[in-house]
Amino acid sequence: MAECGASGSGSSGDSLDKSITLPPDEIFRNLENAKRFAIDIGGSLTKLAYYSTVQHKVAKVRSFDHSGKDTERDHEPPYEISVQEEITARLHFIKFENTYIEACLDFIKDHLVNTETKVIQATGGGAYKFKDLIEEKLRLKVDKEDVMTCLIKGCNFVLKNIPHEAFVYQKDSDPEFRFQTNHPHIFPYLLVNIGSGVSIVKVETEDRFEWVGGSSIGGGTFWGLGALLTKTKKFDELLHLASRGQHSNVDMLVRDVYGGAHQTLGLSGNLIASSFGKSATADQEFSKEDMAKSLLHMISNDIGQLACLHARLHSLDRVYFGGFFIRGHPVTMRTITYSINFFSKGEVQALFLRHEGYLGAIGAFLKGAEQDNPNQYSWGENYAGSSGLMSTSPELGPAQRARSGTFDLLEMDRLERPLVNLPLLLDPPSYVPDTVDLTDDALARKYWLTCFEEALDGVVKRAVASQPDSVDAAERAEKFRQKYWNKLQTLRQQPFAYGTLTVRSLLDTREHCLNEFNFPDPYSKVKQRENGVALRCFPGVVRSLDTLGWEERQLALVKGLLAGNVFDWGAKAVSDVLESDPYFGFEEAKRKLQERPWLVDSYSEWLQRLKGPPHKCALIFADNSGIDIILGVFPFVRELLLRGTEVILACNSGPALNDVTHGESLIVAERIAGMDPVVHSALREERLLLVQTGSSSPCLDLSRLDKGLAALVRERGADLVVIEGMGRAVHTNYHAALCCESLKLAVIKNAWLAERLGGRLFSVIFKYEVPAE
Amino acid sequence: MLKLVGGGGGQDWACSVAGTSLGGEEAAFEVARPGDRGKAGGGSPGWGCAGIPDSEPWAGVLQAGVVGPARWGQGAEEVGESAGGGEERRVRHPQAPALRLPNRKPQGGSGEIKTPENDLQRGRLSRGPRAAPPAPGMGDRGGQPERSAPHSPGAPVGTSAAAVNGLLHNGFHPPPVQPPLVCSRGPVGGNDAVPQRLPLLPELQPQPLLPQHDSPAKKCRLRRRMDSGRKNRPPFPWFGMDIGGTLVKLVYFEPKDITAEEEQEEVENLKSIRKYLTSNTAYGKTGIRDVHLELKNLTMCGRKGNLHFIRFPSCAMHRFIQMGSEKNFSSLHTTLCATGGGAFKFEEDFRMIADLQLHKLDELDCLIQGLLYVDSVGFNGKPECYYFENPTNPELCQKKPYCLDNPYPMLLVNMGSGVSILAVYSKDNYKRVTGTSLGGGTFLGLCCLLTGCETFEEALEMAAKGDSTNVDKLVKDIYGGDYERFGLQGSAVASSFGNMMSKEKRDSISKEDLARATLVTITNNIGSIARMCALNENIDRVVFVGNFLRINMVSMKLLAYAMDFWSKGQLKALFLEHEGYFGAVGALLELFKMTDDK
């Protein structure tokens, strides 16, 4: 098998294919429902893409029919939860060595149930070679797609849809990858694809690109010439050789010509004057390692130089590199980055892509799926199903580095609705949602990884408990535990596996893993119960607020917001209290709050502001179900409404922990409207609008919000943004700069974080910000 | 171990050597046999340094006193060891003390040669302020116009060398007043060459035949009369040297207007150099004189003669220096003008071992001045510059002369071991645009590794017979035909050596195919970079020079094709007959200039 990988064309390995035992459906998941196929066959790797529908359970909330009277019976839940099967769309991408093609095609044929599929989109050099095999095996007509068109479609797709897709490589930093926040304007850029040869393409818009040049000195040259020089057959082994070699033994350096560094000319003696120059004049044996290194430098420098010349000609400073020569290999990323820096004097940035290997397959798929308008959707990387960036530790041997020899997966979920930037972001290109970059901060990384590991038992328990009627809940929960545990271990080794590691990505990964094993909403019942309890308290809370004087009431409202925020099942400290004392009440929570002055306290400024004219429209991002939304947020909303401020209440589209979902918020609002005329009329007159965020995360990425929300914010001219909760206002958006007033409120329910921020457990953050004029 | 032997007796060692004593055991500087020329460029046994049977007396001059054929890649130690053999020879050829000859009388007549306008003018082209660094492949992009004069360290060096030479005074007459030799660019280390250069301009004009008495010109002439020659010229021999990464290029001016008197006064040492160099075409095993490039009947610095073009591998430098030492070259008190990286690398060795002070010169300056000079004098009545007509049609493609009278702006691509690319806007305004380490050295290095060949000639010979399409992956190998989306022909190379990813293909190709593929790969890459630079610099004339193009029609036609095809006829590839020698010529021109300057 290992030998076959080196054949390049893949045709030589046929005899060995039979011996391959494919990993079971862990690889080709959801194949039964696969609808549309695309395949990208490169020189050594095949990337298969298919579109499938994933059936998974979702917890739906539905109001009881309240046609009867007297609905407020104490024991009755406020709404019913029904678990339904929902079908969502998912894109699967699988990458494997060409050697496996036949076995994979057989596997697909055996498992493919869907008969509607008639065509497979194929791209890549190998598409021509394997056309007959594919048609014979799958009985699908091969529709060949242009390689570069696919590549660019794929590139645009990942740049738009996958956060932290692009990264720069930084030598000698830990980790070596520095992920880029997604630029809202991805065009124009230069794409340098280093496959067997090199193609340089200038991409100007979604549909307009131009092949501006190329070079025949590429990955094939490294591989082919390397194989001749070193008798080493595999690409990865060649790279491994190169990483141990000394190119100066083979290359003629400036110092070999000049006798040393040439100071007056400002040229380092270590620069290469002539690649392989020493092998022309020295009658000696050269080590494989040295030759491989020299070859690597020669090719990387050459490509970097050409890329710079093209970038300069077209006045572009962003150059993305892709192709199998790059594909996650730190050695090549390092040499390319060096070369780009050298030749452009730092003016051009060499960028790499996490999913670079999939671009062709993604593009081919998109090409075939054009009638479905895939571009009108937003997609999200599914952390549970994707294998992440391969291990890149340079000291790992080829055996360990052979991730390319196994199967690599990428799964993208089609999101219900397209996601866009919040129009109120001050500077979208520079917006970074996350407060702490755990890839960067090793100490924080260790803490949080451990924290999530320790919380895992509780999550598993909660998941099992949420499905008391299910016979296999325990089994699935165990699988979830394994999967998430493994992810955490992977992230310990490769913090950059899914882009920048953050508390948000850890939380999201957990949600994805829970969904994977059909625990769509482990907190649904808890939320239901809490919402019921809180709704019953609502009239009393409102009444007592109304007895207060204006100034007193404002503080009480804010305290209510904060107290509600203590109810957060995501924070271990609180979930312990809640588990042990389910009647832990609103008032108790208030008492737990830190006394003013708070850790961050701009309440006085806020109060001063409230004495002024009302805001036109407030956008509020809600956090938890139950006490938080009902006793904290709604009274606050009610006060704003009374002031004449319109309110857009944004809740998560899908469940995450005990966060209130959009569905739940609708019921809650309806129930409150039944009790409160202010809310009632506001809802009826559309002065109170309930919208979904488009997210299913306990955190908040203001650059990926529901398009409808964004439209509404624009339409209503929102001039105040309220973000509450640790996940949304501290782990993310703590530093987010908006172009309108904003309130960020949270109670720090994590001792470590509290300490980091200079406070203690249950410290309060009340951050009121007004943008500079 | 490498003793200086310059101080010895007064005999003319060069003459006394006579090849016999050196015999076959030290077969350096063999008389060229047909085909020997081909050995020079590559990795053959080194520049041996012994005479050969039947060699002329002068052979000894270039004998480096090294026993046995040296192999490529020998380190300094090995050179040192073999130097032991040299000692033997030194015994046989005791060094002469400087042989002082009577001052020559002022001479008229035949010696008073009219200098063609293009001679001195071109020969003394001043360097501009925009000097750029010599060109290792991985050099920076863009010129560094404001850096200090690159060879400023060479100026005091040159001065002291001249002084030493003056004292030793061997060869023709020494100048009675030893002028401090400061390069034309003015103060040492200064970079404001322009104002320094301007006063010199009148001197660059052809010398009036009959200058007025009392005129400054006359004084100048009078002073020159007291020099060795008729004018203020450097003493013979006149060499320009370009010590590159792989090859040393040497140009030697052979005066043909030597009068009987002069002949008589010429020291034996000097005479033997002249005789040896001019009557042989090969020196040792690897020293080659490119007879076909000889520029005949040239007037340089007021003397008429032939310019000879000689090359030998850079790895023979140590033996060359040692020879210089043993033959007491320093006694000739000539200034050795050298450029190329080796001028810096070997400077110390020249001084320590051979008591020779190099006058180091910027290689890009030399390259440009040399090129302009050679082009201006023409190639023995034929044009120096040429291009290929119908470059995209193999049947109609043919070499045609090109008039480079108005060469600016031009992109100058110098392909040696590595490649430098310069944008030249005028004779003294240029910048180094970029460079690549994929050059001639890469071609030869890879060929040696892949095919076991040893010389450039061998590699090219193989390449001429090979078929690169067996080795390279073509567009049609991937796409089954043209790649129309990008307008790429099926026959275009998609991946150099791409077919070599497959074991079967690796087993089925020939060495010739590999050599051809290497040549095509390197050539196309240079062409591609050059083309991009031309676009970026907005220049449509690309002049390719350098020894990579020597006897390399394949590359020249490929470059001509590539420039024309990819630019849709907008770019023109130009070539020059003396491909690799311009640096050396430029160095020689500096010799005249530095003598002229004072």
TrEMBL record, chain A:
<dbReference type="GO" id="GO:0005524">
    <property type="term" value="F:ATP binding"/>
</dbReference>
<keyword id="KW-0547">Nucleotide-binding</keyword>
<keyword id="KW-0173">Coenzyme A biosynthesis</keyword>
<keyword id="KW-0464">Manganese</keyword>
<comment type="function">
    <text>Phosphatase which shows a preference for 4'-phosphopantetheine and its oxidatively damaged forms (sulfonate or S-sulfonate), providing strong indirect evidence that the phosphatase activity pre-empts damage in the coenzyme A (CoA) pathway. Hydrolyzing excess 4'-phosphopantetheine could constitute a directed overflow mechanism to prevent its oxidation to the S-sulfonate, sulfonate, or other forms. Hydrolyzing 4'-phosphopantetheine sulfonate or S-sulfonate would forestall their conversion to inactive forms of CoA and acyl carrier protein.</text>
</comment>
<comment type="subunit">
    <text>Homodimer. Interacts with PKM.</text>
</comment>
<dbReference type="GO" id="GO:0015937">
    <property type="term" value="P:coenzyme A biosynthetic process"/>
</dbReference>
<keyword id="KW-0067">ATP-binding</keyword>
<comment type="similarity">
    <text>Belongs to the type II pantothenate kinase family.</text>
</comment>
<keyword id="KW-0533">Nickel</keyword>
<dbReference type="GO" id="GO:0005829">
    <property type="term" value="C:cytosol"/>
</dbReference>
<comment type="similarity">
    <text>In the C-terminal section; belongs to the damage-control phosphatase family. Phosphopantetheine phosphatase II subfamily.</text>
</comment>
<keyword id="KW-0007">Acetylation</keyword>
<dbReference type="GO" id="GO:0016301">
    <property type="term" value="F:kinase activity"/>
</dbReference>
<dbReference type="InterPro" id="IPR043129">
    <property type="entry name" value="ATPase_NBD"/>
</dbReference>
<feature type="domain" description="Damage-control phosphatase ARMT1-like metal-binding">
    <location>
        <begin position="453"/>
        <end position="759"/>
    </location>
</feature>
<dbReference type="InterPro" id="IPR035073">
    <property type="entry name" value="At2g17340_3_helix_bundle"/>
</dbReference>
<dbReference type="Pfam" id="PF03630">
    <property type="entry name" value="Fumble"/>
</dbReference>
<dbReference type="InterPro" id="IPR002791">
    <property type="entry name" value="ARMT1-like_metal-bd"/>
</dbReference>
<dbReference type="GO" id="GO:0005634">
    <property type="term" value="C:nucleus"/>
</dbReference>
<keyword id="KW-0808">Transferase</keyword>
<dbReference type="GO" id="GO:0046872">
    <property type="term" value="F:metal ion binding"/>
</dbReference>
TrEMBL record, chain B:
<feature type="compositionally biased region" description="Gly residues">
    <location>
        <begin position="40"/>
        <end position="49"/>
    </location>
</feature>
<dbReference type="InterPro" id="IPR043129">
    <property type="entry name" value="ATPase_NBD"/>
</dbReference>
<comment type="subunit">
    <text>Homodimer.</text>
</comment>
<protein>
    <recommendedName>
        <fullName>pantothenate kinase</fullName>
        <ecNumber>2.7.1.33</ecNumber>
    </recommendedName>
</protein>
<dbReference type="GO" id="GO:0005829">
    <property type="term" value="C:cytosol"/>
</dbReference>
<feature type="region of interest" description="Disordered">
    <location>
        <begin position="33"/>
        <end position="54"/>
    </location>
</feature>
<keyword id="KW-0418">Kinase</keyword>
<keyword id="KW-0597">Phosphoprotein</keyword>
<dbReference type="GO" id="GO:0015937">
    <property type="term" value="P:coenzyme A biosynthetic process"/>
</dbReference>
<keyword id="KW-0173">Coenzyme A biosynthesis</keyword>
<comment type="similarity">
    <text>Belongs to the type II pantothenate kinase family.</text>
</comment>
<feature type="region of interest" description="Disordered">
    <location>
        <begin position="75"/>
        <end position="161"/>
    </location>
</feature>
<comment type="pathway">
    <text>Cofactor biosynthesis; coenzyme A biosynthesis; CoA from (R)-pantothenate: step 1/5.</text>
</comment>
<dbReference type="GO" id="GO:0005524">
    <property type="term" value="F:ATP binding"/>
</dbReference>
<keyword id="KW-0963">Cytoplasm</keyword>
<keyword id="KW-0808">Transferase</keyword>
<keyword id="KW-0547">Nucleotide-binding</keyword>
<dbReference type="GO" id="GO:0004594">
    <property type="term" value="F:pantothenate kinase activity"/>
</dbReference>
<dbReference type="InterPro" id="IPR004567">
    <property type="entry name" value="Type_II_PanK"/>
</dbReference>
<keyword id="KW-0067">ATP-binding</keyword>
<dbReference type="GO" id="GO:0005634">
    <property type="term" value="C:nucleus"/>
</dbReference>
<dbReference type="Pfam" id="PF03630">
    <property type="entry name" value="Fumble"/>
</dbReference>
